[in-house]
Write a structure and sequence with these properties.
Length: 358
Amino acid sequence: MATRLVLLALGPALALGLGRFAYALVLPLMQNAWGLSYAQAGILGSANTLGYLVGAFFSHRLLGRVGYRKGFFLALFLQGPILALTGMENLPLVFSLRFLQGFLGALVFVGGAALLMALGSSGRTLGIYYGGVGLGLLLAPWLLWGAAEPTGAWARLGLYSLLLGLPALLAWPLLKEPPPPVQGEGSLWPILPLLLAYGLYGAGYIGYMTFVAAVVGDSLVLFGLLGLGALLTGPVWGPWVERVGGRKGLFHVLLVLFLGSLPPLALHLSALSALLFGLSFLGVITALTQAFRTLLPPSAWPRAMGLSTAAFALGQAVGPAVAGFFAEMAGRGEGALWAASVLLFLALLPTWSRPQKP
């Protein structure tokens, strides 16, 4: 049973690892073949983030209406054709497809987590699920190896997304729907500080991911180490979070993430920085999910997952702009990494003390 449930990790691998992060690998091909400017590239990146934000806001309502199982797999298998069509040289169409991919990616991410939580899955299993993003990060460069133009590159991503999604269907019979909301049990007040921390984490994490390769160089090695670290999320952080609890575990993961992001480490020991960052950036989600299970009744878990993903997406939308602004002020890319580290430090603060219910 556990082995088949782990196949759900292909959801984040495809929706985020290939659907979102592989864009950075195809972007140089798009710039060379289409004459895409940096401004246009940024707009397409923002379209994906905006779609993820909107999808996160509506995920609980939409998945609750169509069913979490159906919604998860429908969103997962639509990734293939959407990615394949993204190679068409039509910027309005590509913008729309990047938005739609982000929207469906949020449904995959939230839906799979809610389904596993409904089964009472352990922190280790949830960590493996979230760590699926790392599998996508590791696969993307190899799936695109030798691609010379964007149309073929996106076609490859679409085809492999469709094929790699098929094994996840083996988990279908084991899944059950999350419980419906119960009146009087839906207050999310206990987790509001954690939502704030998660939003700040989103801003700091994406600031590091956006600029570290430009500052340090050797993007292929960094990409690989980030992916390798992410794959270890479940075995490393899952048992620890179960032992110390979600809230305390969240503080510990964010602390390691903050230390890994510090510019002196990134500049002088870039491999260690990337490995620590990759190991911890998805551990944050593992710890947050465990905190939800402790602080909220089961009927509130799906809504909490949707709102937390929206808080993360909002932070992720503003993070690159904040980091870029500080890089301009500092006159060098290192300023962006310092901004990311400061945001991650601020994310630590709401996790420090336990809120008291009024």
